[in-house]
Design a protein that fits this description.
3-stranded parallel sheet, single chain, about 50% helix, alpha/beta, Rossmann fold, 3 strands
């Protein structure tokens, strides 16, 4: 909870004075997890903390929209990072399949790249998304 949820709350509170004074166009984009959209698993504590972040972000969107501050979420699926890859490897071993079989279940046929997530965040933070707030956008290869 400290790292996943409360850190975002503290960072938001610290940034709010600057966001308020920046005028319209300010944006907050939080990173959720596909674990919030599936049945609870071995990562229940992680999914619960990310679920709190989702609830907080959507409530914050309603609260801050009148101030011209947009709040959105990006919800990644499986992404190739040191931590993410290790979790996928553990799951694959646990069910007795090769790691490559995990990506075969993704409709777009591959595990995500950090750039996939970064592009979605950059879009939501940009003025091109000026009419989007309170959105939770899945970037998960179609999962």
């Amino acid at each position: 909870m400290q790292l996943i949820f409360l850190a975002a709350v503290r960072l938001t509170n610290a940034a709010l004075p600057a966001l308020r004074s920046s005028g319209s166009g300010a944006s907050i984009v939080n990173i959720s997890s596909a674990s919030t959209r599936s049945k609870p698993s071995q990562l229940l504590h992680y999914a619960a903390a990310k679920g709190a972040l989702v609830t907080y972000s959507l409530g914050l969107a309603r609260e801050l929209t009148p101030l011209g501050i947009r709040v959105n979420l990006v919800t990644p699926g499986s992404v190739e990072t040191p931590g993410g890859t290790e979790v996928m490897r553990t799951f694959a071993e646990g069910i007795g399949v090769p790691l490559e079989a995990m990506s075969a279940q993704i409709p777009l046929g591959r595990i995500g790249d950090p750039m996939d997530i970064g592009e979605a965040v950059a879009f939501l933070a940009s003025t091109r998304a000026q009419w989007i707030t309170g959105a939770d956008i899945a970037v998960d290869g179609g999962m």
